[in-house]
Amino acid sequence: MASTSVSRVVPASPQRVWDLIGGFDALPDWLPYIPESTALEGGRVRRLANPDGDVIIERLVAFDEVERHYSYAILQAPFPVTGYLSTLRVHSIAGRDDVAEVQWSGRFTPDGITDAEAEDLFAGIYRDGLDALHQALSA
């Protein structure tokens, strides 16, 4: 099993960040790679579409409003991995209420590619996503 994690400090309070990203169906609000999200099964499953028209279906597996994090599994996607489980988490920074650290991490089993290739793929996705979040919060 391979894994990767990317963190980024963003210019907003932890609660403001969570208000933007904490909804499981909120990716289109801050992530340009996902312009469309449809909530299914009472909001526990999301059907995403990327600009290329690829469909990604994910299931919420854990959610903690107080600790500001959720985890999800990919059920269907065009990625060369299986057993994908990811967590999106907002951390407070001691002594600061005007910034927050956001961590996006995942573990998965590569399918037809090396661990390093899979880790690079998702590190890039997470890094680009957190860059987009930083831009959304800076606007």
TrEMBL record:
It comes from the Bacteria. This is SRPBCC family protein. Coiled coil: none annotated. InterPro entries: Polyketide_cyclase/dehydratase (IPR019587), START-like_dom_sf (IPR023393). It holds the Pfam family Polyketide_cyc2.
